[in-house]
């Protein structure tokens, strides 16, 4: 199964849902310097104090600022739709 979702720039993004899993994360660690940042997305391993990194994403500081803005805008939008009772469609 494939999902062809248009993004804001009008480009189609192809995702093979059979081979591209959604990785759940309940912890994030950031390493930031003047050149950019790396986000380590982690899962807690059961009732232990151990974490397993499931994905590492690196980007420039400029890209991180854009991500921060878009993520904040989308969260505000969704929260507004939930409060007003509107249906959210992706």
Distance between the termini: 17 Å
Quick one: biggest sheet? 3 strands, antiparallel
Number of helices: 1
The radius of gyration over CA amounts to 16 Å
Q: Order of helices and strands, N to C?
A: EEEEEH
What is the helical fraction, as a range of percent?
Answer: 25-40%
Structural class from helices and strands? alpha+beta
Give an overview of the whole structure.
- The protein is α+β, with helices and mostly antiparallel strands.
- Helices cover 27% and strands 39% of the residues.
- The protein has one helix and five strands; from the N terminus they run βββββα.
- The chain has one helix at residues 61-84, and strands at 2-6, 12-16, 27-32, 36-44, 51-60.
- The strands form two sheets. It has a three-stranded antiparallel β-sheet. The chain has a two-stranded antiparallel ribbon with strand order 1-2.
- Strand 1 and strand 2 form a beta hairpin.
- The longest helix has 24 residues, at 61-84.
- The chain is extended and about 40 Å long.
- The two termini are 17 Å apart.
């Amino acid at each position: 199964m494939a999902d062809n979702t248009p993004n804001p720039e009008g480009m189609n993004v192809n995702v093979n849902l059979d081979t591209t899993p959604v990785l759940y994360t309940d912890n994030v660690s950031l390493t930031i310097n003047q050149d950019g940042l790396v986000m380590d997305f982690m899962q807690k391993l059961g009732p232990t104090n151990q974490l397993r990194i499931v994905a590492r994403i690196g980007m420039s500081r400029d890209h991180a600022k854009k991500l921060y803005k878009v993520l904040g805008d989308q969260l505000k939008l969704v929260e507004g739709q939930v409060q007003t009772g509107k249906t959210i469609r992706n």
